[in-house]
Amino acid sequence: MAPVTSLSASVHQRLADALSAALPEAAPADPLLRRSDRADFQANGILALAKKAKANPRELATKVVGSIDAPELLGDVEVSGPGFLNITVTDRAIVETLAARAADTDRLGVPFADAPGTTVIDWAQPNVAKEMHVGHLRNSVIGNAVKRILEFTGEKIVSRHHIGDWGTQFGMLIQYLLEHPHELDHKEAAEGEAAGEEAMSNLNRIYKAARVLFDSDEEFKTRARRRVVDLQAGDEETLALWQRFVDESKIYFYSVFDKLDVEIHDEDIVGESGYNDMLAETCRLLEESGVAVRSEGALCVFFDDVKGPDGNPVPLIVQKSDGGFGYAATDLSAIRDRVFNLKADTLLYVVDARQSLHFKMVFETARKAGWLTDDVKAVQLAFGTVLGKDGKPFKTREGETVRLIDLLDEAIERATAVVREKAEKVGLTEEEIVDNGRQVGIGAVKYADLSTSAVRDYKFDLDQMVSLHGNTSVYLQYAYARIQSILRKAGDARPAAHPELGLAPAERALGLHLDQFAETLAEVAEEYAPHKLASYLYELATHLTKFYDQCQVLSDENPTEVVENRLFLVDLTGRTLHQGMALLGIRTPGRL
Ligand code: ARG
């Protein structure tokens, strides 16, 4: 299906043409069009153009109005104030444009990006043998949404889950497992969630026991340290044990991602260890090119603008003085891989804002080394901290970090209670209550995360998240379910567009907002800003509510065409909500 030109794009074009006709020396001129409460649109561009041409703005505006000729598209065009234009589009144009969107089943008229490229997106990166916490909620939820949104624009996406699967702590873990070989055996043939729980409890137990030994037993400590060397040297037995930790952790990760309703694929899990073979060369190239220098034995990159509190430069350490490689060497190698092997033209990192300095230094180093050129964009989509109700970083009452799985379970439980309250009226079965409870609970958590700009901290407040009122996913999901219920109740009456009908104000407002979907998505994708999609959807649901209040859909008093046209608006709103929520990674149950 062909993409649909939005009303604002059409109006923009007509105005630009009229402006150029009225003031040829200004062509191509931007009318600076925006949505307005007074009319449908307002154009403010004439003021500046008149000033430049030393013309009277009101006169110029009047001349522009005179040269516009688009009766099917434009209703009223009025000069107002010092030289603004207030523009109203015709009801017919609204309905016809929406009908074209509705006819495009898969994309609702949303065009693909003009020049899609390849983005490698680094997201959902938990750490092996460690519990996932709220920070991992954010990199999973935001990453999932941004990936879906970019894919929808036609961008080629390669996911990279840069899991923390390497480091000295593995010496201790592996040595412990070697000495207690049955600790990772599975007692039960559990599957799914239960398997995930068992895996994590095994890992936790081993971690704690190994730590105790490491801290209390000097000989174990020595053996553990030697084991790190074996691991780095690629000793086969050691690697096999390391692999068991990775595999065990993956069972756990997958169970959490499953609960979160986030799909990840095994081939995209390329953890820190995946770049081991490149580290030495990365360092060699940096040293040979002089980008990095030896300082007290360590290989460092210095920056003019990165200084510590004492005023001394803070370097990026790519290789420690003992020869060990760290986080930076891995990320630099990953850049080489992503640019040269995966042919990325955008590198996107969905990572905690507390790692921003790291990425700034890594990107700058890669630029100096010539691995990042002007053709490659590298962006950290930095996210803020999840706070408790008290405004401090989210902790349990005992002061421990909150386990992600507990948090999700609680959200599902709360959401299920909300769903259950209405279930009888809707006639839901117990199975539907359970399914919906999950979709509402997980949706609530995701939406709360996605509805504020990523870089801001936000408060994790379940009461607010599962509220039926206000800017929550529950509100949007109920709006969607209500639409489905109306469509079911409509019986034989089908949604159908009737451009010949006049529209009520609430219908126009809803229609104009629906028409903005494609443009909103383009902006959301361009800025990696899912929160703008969330606000668009919230506004859409708000327009829908006003429309219900002011316009009866299924009323015997309505002529058939009015019923059909209203059903058409309702249906397109539902499909837009569904599509938008799906892009955020949130389900929309049909009955709620
Ligand atoms: N595993 C890291 C963490 O839990 C995030 C990794 C981010 N990605 C990267 N390429 N450094 O904080």
TrEMBL record:
EC number(s) from the headed UniProt entry: 6.1.1.19
InterPro entries: aa-tRNA-synth_I_CS (IPR001412), Arg-tRNA-ligase (IPR001278), Arg-tRNA-synth_N (IPR005148), Arg-tRNA-synth_N_sf (IPR036695), ArgRS_core (IPR035684), DALR_anticod-bd (IPR008909), Rossmann-like_a/b/a_fold (IPR014729), tRNAsynth_Ia_anticodon-bd (IPR009080)
Positions of the Arginyl tRNA synthetase N-terminal domain: 9-89
A cellular-component GO term for this protein: cytoplasm
Subunit structure: Monomer.
Main location: cytoplasm
Protein name: Arginine--tRNA ligase
Molecular functions (GO terms): arginine-tRNA ligase activity; ATP binding
Chemical reaction(s) catalysed: tRNA(Arg) + L-arginine + ATP = L-arginyl-tRNA(Arg) + AMP + diphosphate
